[in-house]
Amino acid sequence: MPYRWFNPPVYVKTERPGLRLGVNRVDAAAEELLKWSNRGPKWRLAVEACLSAMDGKMPGNDFRLLFEAAADEEEMLLPD
């Protein structure tokens, strides 16, 4: 599977306090989505969009917006 990139990265909290992760690939976003314990409606949309983006049916930057919204909803989003 080719990497699906997006720009700018979405910065999210990590399991290690004080560290943040800049996510700029669909596959990396998928890994992060699966780690989050809260799974609201925007998380579900991001997961569905992730599958579409991985299949090349959605541009990476369109997916980025949904991933960012899910991160915000789950209180995982950090400022640039």
Describe the 3D structure:
The chain is α+β, with helices and mostly antiparallel strands and about 80 residues long. Helices cover about 50% and strands about 20% of the residues. The protein has a two-stranded antiparallel sheet. A hairpin with a 6-residue loop joins strand 1 and strand 2 (about 20-25). The radius of gyration is 11 Å and the shape is globular. The termini are far apart. The relative contact order is 0.24. The mean pLDDT is about 95.
Topology summary:
Layout: E1 5-13, E2 20-25, H1 26-35, H2 41-54, H3 60-73
Antiparallel strand pairs: 1-2
Structure at a glance:
This protein is an alpha+beta fold. It is 48% helix and 19% strand. It is built from 3 helices and 2 strands; from the N terminus they run ββααα.
Q: Note poorly predicted spans.
A: none
Number of strands: 2
Rounded mean pLDDT is 93
Cα shape: globular
Please work out how many helical segments DSSP would assign. Answer: 3
Strand order, biggest sheet?
A: 1-2
- Structural class call reads alpha+beta
Report, as a whole number of angstroms, the end-to-end distance. 28 Å
Our estimate of the beta-strand percent is: 15-25%
- Structural Rg: 11 Å
Work out the helicity level: 40-55%
Largest sheet: 2 strands, antiparallel
The helix-strand sequence is EEHHH
